[in-house]
Amino acid sequence: MKKKVSGKTVKKSIDYKQMKGDSRWFVRDRFGMFIHWGLYAMAARHEWVKKREQICDADYEVYFKHFDPDLYDPREWARLARKAGMKYFVVTAKHHEGFCLWNSKYTGYKSTKTPYGKDLLAPMVKAFREEGLRVGFYYSLLDWHHPDFTVDSCHPMQHNQAERAKNSKRDVRKYAAYMRNQVRELLTGFGQIDLLWFDFSYPGEDGKGHLEWESEKLIKLVRKLQPDILVDNRLDLPGVGDFITPEQWQPPAGMTDEKGKPVVWEACQTFSGSWGYHRDEMTWKSVPQLLGMLIDGVSKDGNLLLNVGPTARGEFDYRARERLEGIGEWMRRHSRSIYGCGPAPDGLEPPPDCRYTYNPATRRLYLHVLAWPFGTIYCPGLEGRFEYAQFLHDGSEVRFSAPGEAAWAGLGSDKFKKMMAFNLPVVKPHTEVPVIEIFMK
Ligand code: GLC
Protein backbone atom coordinates (compact mmCIF):
# COMPACT_ATOMS: atom_id res chain seq x y z
CA MET A 1 0.00 0.00 0.00
CA LYS A 2 1.70 3.13 -1.23
CA LYS A 3 0.45 6.63 -1.81
CA LYS A 4 2.01 9.67 -3.42
CA VAL A 5 2.74 12.61 -1.15
CA SER A 6 4.22 15.72 -2.82
CA GLY A 7 5.72 13.69 -5.61
CA LYS A 8 7.39 11.09 -3.36
CA THR A 9 6.09 7.61 -2.72
CA VAL A 10 5.72 6.95 0.99
CA LYS A 11 4.45 3.93 2.83
CA LYS A 12 1.17 4.02 4.71
CA SER A 13 1.50 3.12 8.36
CA ILE A 14 0.33 -0.48 8.14
CA ASP A 15 1.58 -2.33 5.12
CA TYR A 16 -0.29 -5.62 5.40
CA LYS A 17 1.67 -6.95 2.43
CA GLN A 18 4.83 -6.78 4.47
CA MET A 19 3.25 -8.53 7.41
CA LYS A 20 4.19 -12.17 7.68
CA GLY A 21 3.33 -14.90 10.15
CA ASP A 22 5.87 -16.96 12.00
CA SER A 23 6.74 -19.87 9.72
CA ARG A 24 9.63 -21.26 11.79
CA TRP A 25 7.57 -24.09 13.30
CA PHE A 26 5.99 -24.80 9.93
CA VAL A 27 9.19 -25.50 8.02
CA ARG A 28 10.46 -27.59 10.91
CA ASP A 29 7.33 -29.73 11.41
CA ARG A 30 6.83 -30.54 7.72
CA PHE A 31 3.83 -32.84 8.00
CA GLY A 32 0.19 -32.02 8.68
CA MET A 33 -3.27 -33.51 8.38
CA PHE A 34 -5.96 -31.89 6.26
CA ILE A 35 -9.53 -32.74 7.23
CA HIS A 36 -12.43 -32.18 4.84
CA TRP A 37 -15.67 -32.79 6.66
CA GLY A 38 -19.15 -31.51 6.02
CA LEU A 39 -22.57 -32.57 4.77
CA TYR A 40 -20.94 -33.87 1.58
CA ALA A 41 -19.61 -36.82 3.61
CA MET A 42 -23.19 -38.16 3.42
CA ALA A 43 -23.39 -37.96 -0.37
CA ALA A 44 -19.97 -39.68 -0.26
CA ARG A 45 -19.23 -38.78 -3.85
CA HIS A 46 -16.98 -35.69 -3.68
CA GLU A 47 -17.19 -32.44 -1.74
CA TRP A 48 -18.12 -30.65 -4.97
CA VAL A 49 -21.17 -32.88 -5.42
CA LYS A 50 -23.58 -29.95 -5.12
CA LYS A 51 -21.90 -28.17 -8.02
CA ARG A 52 -21.07 -31.24 -10.08
CA GLU A 53 -24.66 -32.50 -10.01
CA GLN A 54 -26.17 -28.99 -9.97
CA ILE A 55 -28.16 -29.74 -6.85
CA CYS A 56 -30.44 -26.92 -5.68
CA ASP A 57 -30.63 -25.83 -2.03
CA ALA A 58 -33.98 -27.57 -1.49
CA ASP A 59 -32.63 -30.94 -2.61
CA TYR A 60 -29.31 -30.55 -0.76
CA GLU A 61 -31.27 -29.89 2.41
CA VAL A 62 -31.82 -33.63 2.84
CA TYR A 63 -28.25 -33.95 4.11
CA PHE A 64 -28.63 -31.16 6.63
CA LYS A 65 -31.85 -32.75 7.88
CA HIS A 66 -30.17 -36.11 8.48
CA PHE A 67 -26.63 -35.22 9.50
CA ASP A 68 -25.78 -37.21 12.63
CA PRO A 69 -22.15 -38.34 13.03
CA ASP A 70 -22.90 -40.38 16.13
CA LEU A 71 -19.50 -42.12 16.24
CA TYR A 72 -17.51 -38.86 16.15
CA ASP A 73 -14.61 -39.04 18.60
CA PRO A 74 -12.05 -36.32 17.85
CA ARG A 75 -9.61 -37.81 20.37
CA GLU A 76 -9.38 -40.87 18.15
CA TRP A 77 -8.73 -38.68 15.08
CA ALA A 78 -6.06 -36.72 16.92
CA ARG A 79 -4.39 -39.89 18.13
CA LEU A 80 -4.28 -41.30 14.60
CA ALA A 81 -2.77 -38.05 13.32
CA ARG A 82 -0.12 -37.92 16.03
CA LYS A 83 0.81 -41.55 15.54
CA ALA A 84 1.21 -40.93 11.81
CA GLY A 85 3.78 -38.29 12.72
CA MET A 86 1.64 -35.29 11.83
CA LYS A 87 2.40 -32.11 13.75
CA TYR A 88 -0.48 -29.85 12.76
CA PHE A 89 -3.95 -30.16 11.32
CA VAL A 90 -6.15 -27.99 9.15
CA VAL A 91 -9.89 -28.59 9.20
CA THR A 92 -12.64 -27.24 6.95
CA ALA A 93 -14.48 -25.04 9.43
CA LYS A 94 -16.64 -24.20 6.40
CA HIS A 95 -16.29 -25.64 2.91
CA HIS A 96 -17.86 -24.42 -0.35
CA GLU A 97 -21.27 -25.85 0.57
CA GLY A 98 -21.42 -23.21 3.33
CA PHE A 99 -22.11 -25.60 6.22
CA CYS A 100 -20.30 -24.63 9.44
CA LEU A 101 -18.78 -27.07 11.90
CA TRP A 102 -18.97 -24.55 14.72
CA ASN A 103 -21.80 -22.74 16.44
CA SER A 104 -21.50 -19.52 14.45
CA LYS A 105 -23.91 -16.84 15.50
CA TYR A 106 -24.10 -15.52 11.93
CA THR A 107 -25.85 -18.51 10.39
CA GLY A 108 -28.27 -21.33 11.13
CA TYR A 109 -26.46 -23.56 8.65
CA LYS A 110 -24.31 -25.30 11.23
CA SER A 111 -23.87 -28.58 13.04
CA THR A 112 -25.73 -27.45 16.14
CA LYS A 113 -28.93 -27.21 14.09
CA THR A 114 -28.69 -30.71 12.65
CA PRO A 115 -29.95 -33.88 14.40
CA TYR A 116 -26.42 -34.19 15.84
CA GLY A 117 -27.06 -30.94 17.64
CA LYS A 118 -23.54 -30.17 18.85
CA ASP A 119 -20.53 -28.06 17.95
CA LEU A 120 -17.97 -30.21 16.11
CA LEU A 121 -15.08 -27.79 15.98
CA ALA A 122 -14.40 -26.91 19.62
CA PRO A 123 -13.89 -30.54 20.75
CA MET A 124 -11.71 -31.19 17.70
CA VAL A 125 -9.43 -28.26 18.45
CA LYS A 126 -9.15 -29.38 22.06
CA ALA A 127 -8.40 -33.01 21.17
CA PHE A 128 -5.70 -32.19 18.62
CA ARG A 129 -4.06 -29.68 20.95
CA GLU A 130 -4.00 -32.30 23.67
CA GLU A 131 -2.12 -34.62 21.32
CA GLY A 132 0.41 -31.84 20.73
CA LEU A 133 -0.67 -30.75 17.25
CA ARG A 134 -0.95 -27.18 16.09
CA VAL A 135 -4.30 -25.90 14.89
CA GLY A 136 -5.28 -24.63 11.45
CA PHE A 137 -8.63 -23.66 9.97
CA TYR A 138 -9.64 -23.91 6.35
CA TYR A 139 -12.26 -21.33 5.48
CA SER A 140 -13.97 -21.42 2.10
CA LEU A 141 -14.28 -18.11 0.27
CA LEU A 142 -16.96 -19.70 -1.86
CA ASP A 143 -20.34 -20.27 -0.25
CA TRP A 144 -23.09 -22.09 -2.12
CA HIS A 145 -25.63 -21.53 0.59
CA HIS A 146 -25.31 -17.87 1.56
CA PRO A 147 -28.17 -15.78 0.08
CA ASP A 148 -25.87 -12.92 -0.95
CA PHE A 149 -23.31 -15.07 -2.73
CA THR A 150 -24.01 -14.31 -6.39
CA VAL A 151 -24.34 -17.20 -8.81
CA ASP A 152 -21.15 -17.44 -10.88
CA SER A 153 -19.11 -19.94 -12.88
CA CYS A 154 -18.26 -21.94 -9.75
CA HIS A 155 -21.78 -22.08 -8.36
CA PRO A 156 -24.11 -25.11 -8.47
CA MET A 157 -26.77 -22.93 -10.14
CA GLN A 158 -24.30 -21.72 -12.78
CA HIS A 159 -26.60 -22.80 -15.64
CA ASN A 160 -29.89 -21.89 -13.99
CA GLN A 161 -31.08 -18.66 -15.63
CA ALA A 162 -33.81 -18.01 -13.06
CA GLU A 163 -31.24 -18.17 -10.26
CA ARG A 164 -28.84 -16.00 -12.24
CA ALA A 165 -31.58 -13.42 -12.68
CA LYS A 166 -31.79 -13.06 -8.90
CA ASN A 167 -28.18 -11.91 -8.75
CA SER A 168 -29.27 -8.27 -8.97
CA LYS A 169 -30.91 -8.72 -5.56
CA ARG A 170 -27.86 -10.35 -4.02
CA ASP A 171 -25.26 -8.13 -2.40
CA VAL A 172 -21.80 -9.63 -2.37
CA ARG A 173 -20.64 -6.88 0.03
CA LYS A 174 -22.95 -8.34 2.64
CA TYR A 175 -21.36 -11.70 2.01
CA ALA A 176 -17.86 -10.20 2.45
CA ALA A 177 -18.97 -8.75 5.80
CA TYR A 178 -20.37 -12.18 6.77
CA MET A 179 -16.97 -13.73 6.06
CA ARG A 180 -15.21 -11.15 8.23
CA ASN A 181 -17.66 -11.85 11.03
CA GLN A 182 -17.09 -15.56 10.82
CA VAL A 183 -13.32 -15.23 10.56
CA ARG A 184 -13.42 -13.03 13.66
CA GLU A 185 -15.34 -15.77 15.45
CA LEU A 186 -12.83 -18.39 14.38
CA LEU A 187 -9.86 -16.30 15.41
CA THR A 188 -11.22 -15.17 18.75
CA GLY A 189 -13.22 -18.16 20.00
CA PHE A 190 -10.71 -21.02 19.87
CA GLY A 191 -7.47 -19.75 21.38
CA GLN A 192 -4.29 -19.47 19.36
CA ILE A 193 -4.81 -20.47 15.74
CA ASP A 194 -1.59 -21.27 13.95
CA LEU A 195 -2.74 -21.32 10.38
CA LEU A 196 -5.57 -20.11 8.16
CA TRP A 197 -6.27 -21.67 4.79
CA PHE A 198 -8.55 -19.52 2.59
CA ASP A 199 -9.91 -21.28 -0.49
CA PHE A 200 -10.01 -20.00 -3.27
CA SER A 201 -10.05 -17.15 -5.83
CA TYR A 202 -11.09 -17.30 -9.47
CA PRO A 203 -11.17 -13.65 -10.55
CA GLY A 204 -12.67 -12.62 -13.85
CA GLU A 205 -15.98 -11.78 -15.43
CA ASP A 206 -17.95 -14.71 -14.06
CA GLY A 207 -15.72 -15.37 -11.07
CA LYS A 208 -14.66 -13.83 -7.79
CA GLY A 209 -11.41 -12.49 -6.47
CA HIS A 210 -10.02 -9.96 -4.04
CA LEU A 211 -12.59 -7.31 -4.99
CA GLU A 212 -15.55 -9.51 -4.11
CA TRP A 213 -13.97 -11.09 -1.03
CA GLU A 214 -12.65 -7.66 0.07
CA SER A 215 -9.46 -9.54 0.67
CA GLU A 216 -7.49 -6.54 1.93
CA LYS A 217 -9.92 -5.98 4.80
CA LEU A 218 -9.97 -9.68 5.49
CA ILE A 219 -6.21 -10.10 5.71
CA LYS A 220 -5.84 -6.96 7.85
CA LEU A 221 -8.40 -8.36 10.27
CA VAL A 222 -6.58 -11.70 10.40
CA ARG A 223 -3.19 -10.11 11.02
CA LYS A 224 -4.67 -7.88 13.71
CA LEU A 225 -6.36 -10.73 15.58
CA GLN A 226 -3.55 -13.29 15.34
CA PRO A 227 -0.28 -11.61 14.27
CA ASP A 228 1.78 -14.82 14.12
CA ILE A 229 -0.75 -16.82 12.14
CA LEU A 230 0.26 -18.30 8.80
CA VAL A 231 -2.04 -17.56 5.88
CA ASP A 232 -2.06 -19.30 2.51
CA ASN A 233 -1.84 -17.57 -0.86
CA ARG A 234 -5.37 -17.93 -2.23
CA LEU A 235 -6.86 -14.52 -1.44
CA ASP A 236 -5.98 -13.13 -4.87
CA LEU A 237 -3.56 -10.58 -3.41
CA PRO A 238 -0.20 -11.01 -5.13
CA GLY A 239 2.65 -11.07 -2.64
CA VAL A 240 0.33 -11.72 0.31
CA GLY A 241 0.45 -15.03 2.12
CA ASP A 242 3.03 -17.00 4.03
CA PHE A 243 3.11 -20.10 1.90
CA ILE A 244 2.35 -21.38 -1.59
CA THR A 245 -0.11 -24.24 -2.02
CA PRO A 246 0.51 -26.68 -4.89
CA GLU A 247 -2.56 -28.93 -4.91
CA GLN A 248 -2.59 -32.57 -6.05
CA TRP A 249 0.84 -32.34 -7.71
CA GLN A 250 4.46 -32.53 -6.60
CA PRO A 251 6.72 -29.71 -7.78
CA PRO A 252 9.80 -30.87 -9.73
CA ALA A 253 12.08 -28.65 -7.63
CA GLY A 254 11.93 -26.24 -4.69
CA MET A 255 9.42 -23.43 -5.26
CA THR A 256 10.43 -19.82 -5.81
CA ASP A 257 8.80 -16.45 -6.34
CA GLU A 258 8.95 -14.64 -9.71
CA LYS A 259 12.41 -13.38 -8.83
CA GLY A 260 13.72 -16.87 -8.14
CA LYS A 261 13.79 -16.45 -4.37
CA PRO A 262 12.86 -19.65 -2.47
CA VAL A 263 9.43 -19.54 -0.83
CA VAL A 264 7.76 -21.57 1.88
CA TRP A 265 5.44 -24.13 0.33
CA GLU A 266 3.11 -26.94 1.28
CA ALA A 267 1.71 -29.52 -1.12
CA CYS A 268 -1.80 -30.64 -0.25
CA GLN A 269 -2.64 -34.17 -1.31
CA THR A 270 -5.49 -36.64 -1.07
CA PHE A 271 -5.47 -40.36 -0.46
CA SER A 272 -7.77 -41.13 -3.38
CA GLY A 273 -8.59 -37.97 -5.38
CA SER A 274 -11.62 -36.58 -3.58
CA TRP A 275 -11.16 -34.42 -0.46
CA GLY A 276 -14.48 -35.26 1.11
CA TYR A 277 -15.24 -38.89 1.98
CA HIS A 278 -15.77 -40.82 -1.27
CA ARG A 279 -17.10 -44.29 -0.79
CA ASP A 280 -16.53 -45.64 -4.29
CA GLU A 281 -13.24 -44.10 -5.28
CA MET A 282 -10.68 -46.87 -5.88
CA THR A 283 -7.60 -44.81 -6.72
CA TRP A 284 -6.06 -44.96 -3.25
CA LYS A 285 -2.36 -44.26 -3.03
CA SER A 286 -0.19 -46.85 -1.31
CA VAL A 287 1.80 -46.24 1.88
CA PRO A 288 5.21 -46.22 0.09
CA GLN A 289 3.81 -43.83 -2.52
CA LEU A 290 2.54 -41.46 0.18
CA LEU A 291 5.84 -41.68 2.04
CA GLY A 292 7.60 -40.93 -1.23
CA MET A 293 5.52 -37.76 -1.55
CA LEU A 294 6.42 -36.61 1.96
CA ILE A 295 10.11 -37.33 1.45
CA ASP A 296 10.15 -35.78 -2.01
CA GLY A 297 8.60 -32.60 -0.62
CA VAL A 298 11.06 -32.26 2.25
CA SER A 299 13.97 -32.87 -0.16
CA LYS A 300 12.69 -29.79 -2.03
CA ASP A 301 12.13 -27.74 1.11
CA GLY A 302 8.36 -28.27 1.26
CA ASN A 303 5.64 -29.55 3.58
CA LEU A 304 2.94 -32.16 3.04
CA LEU A 305 -0.65 -31.63 4.12
CA LEU A 306 -2.28 -35.01 3.70
CA ASN A 307 -6.05 -35.16 3.63
CA VAL A 308 -8.57 -37.38 5.36
CA GLY A 309 -12.28 -37.22 4.54
CA PRO A 310 -14.09 -38.63 7.58
CA THR A 311 -17.34 -40.54 7.07
CA ALA A 312 -20.84 -39.30 7.85
CA ARG A 313 -20.82 -41.45 11.01
CA GLY A 314 -17.80 -39.46 12.15
CA GLU A 315 -14.99 -41.95 11.63
CA PHE A 316 -11.85 -42.28 9.53
CA ASP A 317 -12.62 -44.98 7.00
CA TYR A 318 -10.59 -48.21 7.18
CA ARG A 319 -8.51 -47.31 4.10
CA ALA A 320 -7.47 -44.00 5.65
CA ARG A 321 -6.62 -45.70 8.93
CA GLU A 322 -4.54 -48.31 7.13
CA ARG A 323 -2.53 -45.58 5.36
CA LEU A 324 -2.08 -43.50 8.50
CA GLU A 325 -0.92 -46.51 10.48
CA GLY A 326 1.50 -47.52 7.71
CA ILE A 327 2.95 -44.02 7.58
CA GLY A 328 3.21 -43.97 11.38
CA GLU A 329 5.05 -47.28 11.41
CA TRP A 330 7.71 -45.74 9.17
CA MET A 331 7.72 -42.35 10.92
CA ARG A 332 8.34 -43.92 14.31
CA ARG A 333 11.85 -44.85 13.20
CA HIS A 334 12.45 -42.35 10.43
CA SER A 335 11.02 -39.01 11.47
CA ARG A 336 14.58 -37.83 12.07
CA SER A 337 14.94 -37.57 8.30
CA ILE A 338 11.80 -35.38 8.08
CA TYR A 339 11.51 -32.96 11.04
CA GLY A 340 13.93 -30.07 10.88
CA CYS A 341 15.15 -31.23 7.48
CA GLY A 342 15.36 -29.61 4.08
CA PRO A 343 17.36 -30.00 0.88
CA ALA A 344 20.89 -31.44 0.71
CA PRO A 345 23.90 -29.13 0.88
CA ASP A 346 25.05 -27.69 -2.44
CA GLY A 347 26.85 -30.00 -4.79
CA LEU A 348 25.09 -33.18 -3.71
CA GLU A 349 22.81 -34.68 -6.34
CA PRO A 350 20.89 -37.74 -5.16
CA PRO A 351 21.59 -41.07 -6.90
CA PRO A 352 18.81 -42.43 -9.19
CA ASP A 353 15.58 -43.43 -7.37
CA CYS A 354 16.80 -41.67 -4.21
CA ARG A 355 16.09 -38.44 -2.35
CA TYR A 356 18.36 -36.59 0.03
CA THR A 357 17.15 -34.60 3.00
CA TYR A 358 19.47 -32.77 5.36
CA ASN A 359 19.31 -31.48 8.89
CA PRO A 360 21.68 -28.50 9.12
CA ALA A 361 21.49 -28.41 12.94
CA THR A 362 22.74 -31.98 13.40
CA ARG A 363 24.71 -32.04 10.11
CA ARG A 364 23.16 -35.35 9.13
CA LEU A 365 22.33 -36.22 5.59
CA TYR A 366 19.57 -38.73 4.85
CA LEU A 367 19.63 -40.90 1.78
CA HIS A 368 16.14 -42.27 1.07
CA VAL A 369 16.19 -45.27 -1.22
CA LEU A 370 12.83 -45.38 -3.00
CA ALA A 371 13.66 -48.38 -5.20
CA TRP A 372 16.06 -50.97 -3.84
CA PRO A 373 19.08 -51.47 -6.10
CA PHE A 374 21.48 -54.40 -6.19
CA GLY A 375 24.65 -54.24 -4.18
CA THR A 376 25.76 -50.65 -4.29
CA ILE A 377 24.59 -47.07 -4.39
CA TYR A 378 27.05 -44.70 -5.99
CA CYS A 379 27.07 -41.30 -4.35
CA PRO A 380 28.98 -38.77 -6.41
CA GLY A 381 30.24 -35.80 -4.41
CA LEU A 382 30.16 -37.54 -1.01
CA GLU A 383 33.77 -38.71 -1.01
CA GLY A 384 35.64 -37.48 2.02
CA ARG A 385 32.68 -35.48 3.34
CA PHE A 386 31.29 -37.81 6.01
CA GLU A 387 32.54 -39.83 8.94
CA TYR A 388 29.97 -42.58 9.47
CA ALA A 389 26.78 -44.01 7.97
CA GLN A 390 24.02 -46.25 9.32
CA PHE A 391 20.54 -47.46 8.48
CA LEU A 392 18.01 -45.36 10.29
CA HIS A 393 15.51 -48.17 10.99
CA ASP A 394 17.93 -50.24 13.11
CA GLY A 395 21.10 -48.18 13.58
CA SER A 396 23.23 -50.77 11.80
CA GLU A 397 26.41 -49.64 10.10
CA VAL A 398 26.37 -49.19 6.35
CA ARG A 399 29.86 -49.75 5.03
CA PHE A 400 31.17 -48.11 1.93
CA SER A 401 33.76 -48.55 -0.74
CA ALA A 402 36.23 -45.82 -1.45
CA PRO A 403 36.39 -44.50 -5.01
CA GLY A 404 37.67 -47.18 -7.32
CA GLU A 405 36.94 -50.09 -4.99
CA ALA A 406 33.31 -50.66 -5.88
CA ALA A 407 34.05 -51.19 -9.56
CA TRP A 408 36.74 -53.67 -8.54
CA ALA A 409 36.36 -55.95 -11.52
CA GLY A 410 37.77 -53.13 -13.55
CA LEU A 411 35.15 -53.51 -16.23
CA GLY A 412 33.55 -50.12 -15.72
CA SER A 413 34.77 -46.90 -17.21
CA ASP A 414 37.15 -44.69 -15.24
CA LYS A 415 34.26 -42.44 -14.39
CA PHE A 416 32.87 -44.98 -11.88
CA LYS A 417 36.24 -45.36 -10.25
CA LYS A 418 36.03 -41.82 -8.93
CA MET A 419 32.80 -42.45 -7.00
CA MET A 420 32.39 -43.78 -3.50
CA ALA A 421 29.59 -46.27 -3.00
CA PHE A 422 27.55 -47.63 -0.11
CA ASN A 423 27.56 -51.42 0.13
CA LEU A 424 24.01 -52.67 0.49
CA PRO A 425 22.52 -55.95 1.67
CA VAL A 426 21.00 -57.90 -1.21
CA VAL A 427 17.60 -57.99 0.43
CA LYS A 428 15.84 -54.68 1.03
CA PRO A 429 15.57 -53.93 4.77
CA HIS A 430 12.19 -54.62 6.31
CA THR A 431 10.82 -51.08 6.05
CA GLU A 432 8.82 -49.28 3.36
CA VAL A 433 11.54 -46.79 2.46
CA PRO A 434 15.03 -47.57 3.78
CA VAL A 435 17.07 -44.56 4.83
CA ILE A 436 20.83 -44.26 5.28
CA GLU A 437 21.76 -41.70 7.89
CA ILE A 438 25.07 -40.09 7.01
CA PHE A 439 27.01 -38.15 9.65
CA MET A 440 28.71 -35.33 7.76
CA LYS A 441 32.08 -34.00 8.82
C1 GLC B 1 -9.78 -27.06 -4.19
C2 GLC B 1 -11.21 -27.52 -4.06
C3 GLC B 1 -11.54 -28.00 -2.74
C4 GLC B 1 -10.47 -28.43 -1.80
C5 GLC B 1 -9.19 -27.70 -1.99
C6 GLC B 1 -8.06 -28.22 -1.17
O1 GLC B 1 -9.59 -25.74 -4.27
O2 GLC B 1 -12.11 -26.54 -4.43
O3 GLC B 1 -12.62 -28.84 -2.76
O4 GLC B 1 -10.90 -28.12 -0.55
O5 GLC B 1 -8.87 -27.63 -3.28
O6 GLC B 1 -6.86 -27.70 -1.55
CATH architecture of the largest domain: Alpha-Beta Barrel
Q: What Rg is obtained from the alpha carbons, in whole angstroms?
A: 25 Å
- Report the uncertain regions: 1-13
CATH class of the largest domain: Alpha Beta
Number of domains: 2
Helical proportion?
Answer: 25-40%
Strand order of the largest sheet: 7-6-5-4-3-9-8
What general form does the structure show?
Answer: elongated
Ligands present: alpha-D-glucopyranose
Spatial gap, N to C terminus = 48 Å
- Largest sheet composition: 7 strands, parallel
Averaging pLDDT over every residue, what do you get?
Answer: 94
Strand content: 15-25%
Q: Determine the CATH superfamily of the largest domain.
A: Glycosidases
Distinct helical segment count: 13
CATH topology call of the largest domain? TIM Barrel
**Main structural class:** alpha/beta
SSE pattern, N- to C-terminal: EEHEHHHHEHEHHEHHEEHEHEEEEEHEE
Structure description:
- This protein is an alpha/beta fold.
- It folds into two domains: 8-337, Glycosidases (TIM Barrel), CATH 3.20.20; 354-440, Golgi alpha-mannosidase II (Immunoglobulin-like), CATH 2.60.40.
- It is built from 13 helices and 16 strands.
- A seven-stranded parallel sheet has the order 7-6-5-4-3-9-8. Strands 10-11-16-13 form a four-stranded antiparallel sheet.
- α6 links the parallel β4 (88-94) and β5.
- Mean pLDDT is 94; it is low at 1-13.
- The structure holds alpha-D-glucopyranose (GLC).
- Alpha-D-glucopyranose binds at residues 36, 47-48, 199-200, 247, 268, 275.
- Alpha-D-glucopyranose binds next to loops.
